[in-house]
Amino acid sequence: MVRIDDSDPVVKCWLSPQEIDRLEQTAGDEGWEREIAIQLMGRCGLRVSEVSYPSTEELRWSKNGGIWLFEVQGKNTKGGGRKTRDAWMPETVADDIHKYTRERKLSESALWVDASTPSVRRWVKEATQAIADETGNDRWESVSSHDLRRSWATYHLVERQVDVRTMMAIGGWSDYSAIEPYLTEPTERRIGEAMRSN
């Protein structure tokens, strides 16, 4: 079930990896481009404004890291112009991107998601509303595009305990104060794992 914090005027939501799977599939029912957009936010941590930047030209396999990386030009959390970073892409998403670009016969420079930021936000809202209608769980109605990035960051920082410097680099946060809000309380599963190992 979607975890929410509605103590502030802006409701914050955290989705589990399984909930992100469901959101991807639901968005994908309306087109593969929508599913890719959800993956870029929920699996790679992109901001909604960054989703329309990458193409296959920016995707590369790092032999040193043994991982997929792709260039993103995104928000500079210190202010000023856009900042370029290498974002991490899970192998499952890279596989989908390769299949998607082959099926669509996209050139190396063609955008994976050729849509405006408001369109991508609308796609998320349409998919979450569809899940809310299907399940009767109205928490889905509160989920926003930023909650996908929030869920990605919290999952890796809190659940997987990825170090903060790595997350800052791949997520585009310039300083600790920008990433600190994502260091929220762990899930019950994480608490149980931590306490059983002591």
From TrEMBL:
InterPro entries: DNA_brk_join_enz, Integrase-like_cat_sf, Integrase_catalytic. Gene3D superfamilies: Intergrase catalytic core. Residues 10-196 form the Tyr recombinase domain. Coiled coil: none annotated. One of its GO terms (biological process) is DNA recombination. Keywords: DNA recombination. CDD domains: DNA_BRE_C. This is Tyrosine-type recombinase/integrase. It comes from Halohasta litorea.
